[in-house]
Amino acid sequence: MEEGENQENLKRTLGFFPALSTVMGLVIGGGVFFKISSVTQATGSASLTIWVWVLAGFVTIMAGLTVAELAAALPVAGGIFKYIEHIYGKIPAFLLAWAQSVVYYPAAISALSIVFATQVINLWGLSASLQIPIAIAVAVFIFACNLLGAKVGGGIQSVAFIAKLIPIVLIIGVGLFTPSTNNVSLFPVTAGSHPSFWTSLGGGYVATMFAFDGWMNVGNMAGEMKHPEKDLAKSIIIGLLGITLIYVLISFVFVKELPFGSIPGNQNAASEAAIKIFGGFGGKLVTIGILVSVFGSINGYSMTGMRVSYALGEDDNIVFAKFFGKLTKKSRVPMNAGIVQTVIAIIMVFLGSFDYLTDMLVFVMWIFSIMMFVGVFILRKREPDLKRPYKINFYPIPPILAIIGGGYIVVYTIITQPTLALLGILLTLVGLPLYLIHDHNKKKLKKETE
């Protein structure tokens, strides 16, 4: 069995703390600073804003624990792509990789480039008309940096990881103890002036999910852990609890420092809070730290995204496979895949806002996430003897809660943003005829050569 062979080849060297830091490093990104504007816009109150972060963290933990069982049982290179392929077959797995290539990674690059440009304009008082040119410039520049090789891209990630922790620690550490005239109470939980509490709760919950993006990869280290049966669940629970606590605290600081009415729809809320806490000069330094963090997030999506398209080309699973599967001679980087990804991201810069693009990628990826959650039930029945170094505690409660939480995101988006949902689904399904045509041509060529 291929999965078994790969499992034996992986070196089990990771202990609990490296796994914990991996979980937190994968998830914490630019969303922690910029989703506060859309969350507050949806909730209408400080109390509900804080509690939707708690709810989102809980659902993410349930999802992470569910995927961890798959990761421990199928610790193969390719992560969620391979889980979907093992459970459902090649076509759904291809559609996942296709969706990642044309929606997920380009939308993330585009959304973060837009918010990067917004912060640059705010920081240096530039004209708002420069938003699109700056967003395009940063996306292209980061792609160009990655052409120099994985070492350069990895170096940017290392610097950005430290950079994103500095403003988070400073804002929380100082902001919690800074006097404020804004009275923030967790109870009673209200929806402010919004007409429907449940609509406000749902909108806020969906808005938080981009900040938790990356949770799907938390199980990928399962095959390299010394004791996955003991440490995997612990690292996921503690890591995601820690992330949820960070998000709750930083959101609390934002609503504590700024008048609530000034936050909804304000992409500069993080920098304005930093200036209020640290003064003009100190606030600008913290904002620069936030910019470096966002720069690193864009780099992470750019670096990993182009390798998904490259893998499709290398495995001859896509039209123009040779084009996508080509590497540069010296740096061994999938340049063609990166060019296509960057071009799609640039198109998206013109098409959507930060929130629109992040909502689209969250919607599309949660469809496949739900397929993974359901897959745990399928594998338990279809392959009861499959070796599972980690099995979900309190089964089947966590996967059921993850399915409910993910299903809510999908249904809510379809109801409230039907155009966005339709566009995400269509972009994903475009891959189906491309796959079938290419597969037909491969079979035809094979027959001709026999």
Automatic annotation (TrEMBL):
The keyword Membrane applies. It is found in: Membrane. Pfam families: AA_permease_2. GO terms for cellular component: membrane. It is a multi-pass membrane protein. Gene3D superfamilies: Amino acid/polyamine transporter I. The chain crosses the membrane at residues 14-36, 48-81, 102-124, 130-149, 161-177, 197-215, 236-255, 275-298, 333-354, 360-380, 392-414, 420-437. One of its GO terms (molecular function) is L-amino acid transmembrane transporter activity. It comes from the Bacteria. Coiled coil: none annotated. The keyword Transmembrane applies. Keywords: Membrane, Transmembrane, Transmembrane helix. This is APC family permease. It comes from Companilactobacillus mishanensis.
